[in-house]
UniProtKB/TrEMBL annotation:
Name of the molecule in the record: V-type ATP synthase beta chain
All copies of domain ATPase F1/V1/A1 complex alpha/beta subunit N-terminal, residue ranges: 9-64
All residue ranges annotated as the ATPase F1/V1/A1 complex alpha/beta subunit nucleotide-binding domain in the record: 131-350
Keyword Glycosyltransferase (UniProt): no
Family: Belongs to the ATPase alpha/beta chains family.
NCBIfam families recorded: PRK04196.1
PANTHER family per the UniProt record, alphabetical: V-TYPE PROTON ATPASE SUBUNIT B
Gene giving rise to this polypeptide: atpB
Pfam family for this entry, one: ATP-synt_VA_C
Keyword annotations of the record: ATP synthesis, Hydrogen ion transport, Ion transport, Transport
Amino acid sequence: MALQYVGLSEINGPLVVLDHVKDASYDEMVELQLKDGSTRSGRIVEIEGERVVVQVFEGTNALSLANTKTRLLGHPMELPLSMEMLGRVFSGAGRPIDGLGDIYAEKSADINGQPLNPVSRVYPRNYINTGISSIDCLMTLIRGQKLPIFSGSGLPHNQLAVQIVKQAKIADEAGQGFAVVFAAMGVTNDVANYFRRSFEEAGVMQRVVMFMNLSNDPIIERILTPRCALTAAEYLAFEHDMHVLVIYTDVTSYCEALREFSSSKGEIPGRKGYPGYLYSDLASLYERAGIAKGAKGSVTQIPILTMPNNDITHPVPDLTGYITEGQITLDPELNATGIYPPVGVLPSLSRLMKDGIGEGFTRADHQDVANQLFACYAHVQDVKSLTSVIGEDELSEADKKYMEFGRLFEQHFLNQGFDTNRSIEETLDLGWLLLSVLPKNTLDRIDNAVVDKFYDHEKAVKEFNLHEDVVIKELKDAVTNG
């Protein structure tokens, strides 16, 4: 027999306190009935003897200390799951908000997920093609990886998220068995409409599951949003053998909601007011990416977070960097020059990239091209620093070539526009074309046999309209240096 408790002991922000409650469980769901007969949902977040603290999802406005009736439901929060979720839009708490009614659930699952035994994890292999050259070539996204995007105020991370959803596919199955779970946390109405409209116009909505938490929704719902999204992803991946890409934005909004909730519970704050358990809380999200032994599907994550004041040492990006396997960093300076996507190459990396590219996955020369482009672009930054001291006219001929390479690299490789979708072959060919701008003897990160196969200086000259006098001198240099 289910007991119903009448009255509340205390109301504090999104929390209510009940006394004399027996046999309650942490994370157990409760139902609160108001005086007018309407109901709200909540979950138990703290237990002290027979005193329990309940987190109310819809907020505590209009709750009465005397007349509110509370019933414990005996189970944690669960999300109804079905293949019908594809193409649907849900609230942050998993309720349909697209006007198409409830889904017919095959099963329900705890939104906190089931811990994945480390012994059962399979090392991530193969890659997901995003169609964006800077990511696919230099910081390749590997299936089962967690690769965050570090952004800042005013940078086009929302645009980049939409482009990745539109273009992402798995190479060998040509998009079959591939789905995207997209979760937005604390976004405004116009941003939410932008995401939804963009997916519908691109014709990819049928493979997308959307979870939308708006900025005027309760902050408690914001804490549930990524967990609902990851539960849906795990269901599609491990029960329907799909490769699932989970993109959620903005993790900073999630962490601020967690900070506000922690403060209302009276917990001792940590760095910048965030709770001391922020690291483990973020890890409980990020570590749900991966591939399980015996499963044909995979869960890959791209969390997007905005760095307050573009400070990469802020607790949210700092802790995220510890947990995840690399990062894609957006550069405000590149964005100011009109380059899209403004991916900062040097501070970005993918730690699992080396094991998911090359022969059998992308192309045999992929690692060589990536290493050489990275090295050349790093040298360009050194030359830029020197230029600021002595001026470009005083540079050596070799350094002037690197400056030319740097300009072409940013204009043609990094800057590809919102609607350009490049295959991995197109990306690598473009990389070789850019490397062919430089004299052959400068390509010291690649085996000579590979350079001879792909290096084509004359084609680079025609493609990028290099000046004839520069061309003649470069050809002479190439002959002289063998």
